[in-house]
């Protein structure tokens, strides 16, 4: 018998639709109605295309109805520039296909929004992508007759965060859209994962925009088509894991290890062994509660990781948005 699964019961925080689907399937014991996906792997890059088709599927995995594409590249942490080039090329081709799928014209004007705080490394993905983006709108405005074929009008902004500007990012973006009137907004944001293995090795594309509470900055107002009046494509990379989620996952790993070595885990793990996942997570949060907040965990090499992945995304976007740039030969890293 199939049951709808409310992920709010788990309280496991993940911004990745793929992880939400995996958790729901694990609990449900099989596929989730209303959620379909396909995966393929090439050159160490696994691409998963996932579609949440209806409200039942949306409730089951806790994600908005829409299309999601996930790139998983475990070896991206090795700082291999050749692999980075391959990921940027793959990203460019897939993003170009994604825009065609949702009906974005090749000459549509684009506004790229880099969300996040440039002073906090794990949250600086958006501003770093904006730094490396090829902006062209000024040429279309000032000298349109001199723009070569194969380019489109692209503008970019990093609006900062409420604590620095005193203005919600969505309000800043709304004002820019009213004046510049782009046909599409691409929002870049840092995300949270439930798995350290996916931190800095995963890229998610979604046509659902940015919704309140998503992303590690916990934006108060979303960037969606309903709010902005134009389609919004979100690109995110998990750069952190919540400490409570990490500790909870460690219990699972210990349990599997003890089961493999000794079979019975009840004596070693006691009452914790009998708790359901959401109950165990509640216990972990209770233990961490004296800290007054849930800590965010990120790898110590985050400085290099964030620059590498930002360059990959920026290079891929530049190639996908401008036909004049060959998507088969994308240089992912600035040398």
TrEMBL record:
Q: EC?
A: 3.4.24.78
The residues that cross the membrane are 228-251
Concerning PTM, the database record says: Autoproteolytically processed. The inactive tetrameric zymogen termed p46 autoprocesses to a smaller form termed p41, which is active only during spore germination.
User: Coiled coil located at which positions?
Assistant: none
What keywords is this UniProt entry annotated with?
Hydrolase, Membrane, Protease, Transmembrane, Transmembrane helix, Zymogen
**A GO MF term:** metalloendopeptidase activity
Propeptide stretch(es), residue numbers: 1-15
Which InterPro entries does the UniProt entry name for this protein?
Pept_HybD-like_dom_sf, Peptidase_A25
- SUPFAM superfamilies in the record, alphabetically? HybD-like (SSF53163)
Please describe what this protein does: Initiates the rapid degradation of small, acid-soluble proteins during spore germination.
Q: What assembly does the database describe for this protein?
A: Homotetramer.
Q: What is this protein called?
A: Germination protease
Taxonomic source organism: Paenibacillus herberti
């Amino acid at each position: 018998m199939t049951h709808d699964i409310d992920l709010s019961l788990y309280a496991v925080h993940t911004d990745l639709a793929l992880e939400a689907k995996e958790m729901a399937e694990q609990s449900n014991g099989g596929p989730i109605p209303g959620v379909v996906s396909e995966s393929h792997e090439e050159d160490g890059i696994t691409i998963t295309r996932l579609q949440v088709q209806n409200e039942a599927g949306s409730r089951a995995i806790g994600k908005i109805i829409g299309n999601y594409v996930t790139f998983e590249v475990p070896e991206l942490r090795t700082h291999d520039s050749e692999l980075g080039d391959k990921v940027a090329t793959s990203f460019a081709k897939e993003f170009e296909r994604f825009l065609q799928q949702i009906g974005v014209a090749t000459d549509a004007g684009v506004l790229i929004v880099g969300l996040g705080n440039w002073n906090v490394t794990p949250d600086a993905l958006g501003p770093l992508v904006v730094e490396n983006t090829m902006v062209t709108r000024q040429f279309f405005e000032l000298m349109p007759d001199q723009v070569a074929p194969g380019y489109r009008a692209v503008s970019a902004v990093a609006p900062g965060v409420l604590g620095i500007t005193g203005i919600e990012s969505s309000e800043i973006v709304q004002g820019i859209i009213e004046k510049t009137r782009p046909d599409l907004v691409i929002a870049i944001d840092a995300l949270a994962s439930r798995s350290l293995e996916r931190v800095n090795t995963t890229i998610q594309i979604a046509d659902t925009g940015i919704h309140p509470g998503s992303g590690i900055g916990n934006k108060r107002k979303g960037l969606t088509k309903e709010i902005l009046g134009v389609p919004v494509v979100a690109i995110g990379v998990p750069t952190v894991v919540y400490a409570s989620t990490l500790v909870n996952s460690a219990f699972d790993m210990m349990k599997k290890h003890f089961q493999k070595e000794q079979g019975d885990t009840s004596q070693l793990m006691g009452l914790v062994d009998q708790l359901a996942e959401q109950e165990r997570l509640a216990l972990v949060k209770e233990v961490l509660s004296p800290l007054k907040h849930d800590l965010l965990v990120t790898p110590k090499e985050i400085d290099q990781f964030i620059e590498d992945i930002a360059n990959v995304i920026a290079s891929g976007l530049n190639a996908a948005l401008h036909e004049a740039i060959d998507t088969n030969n994308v240089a992912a890293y600035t040398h």
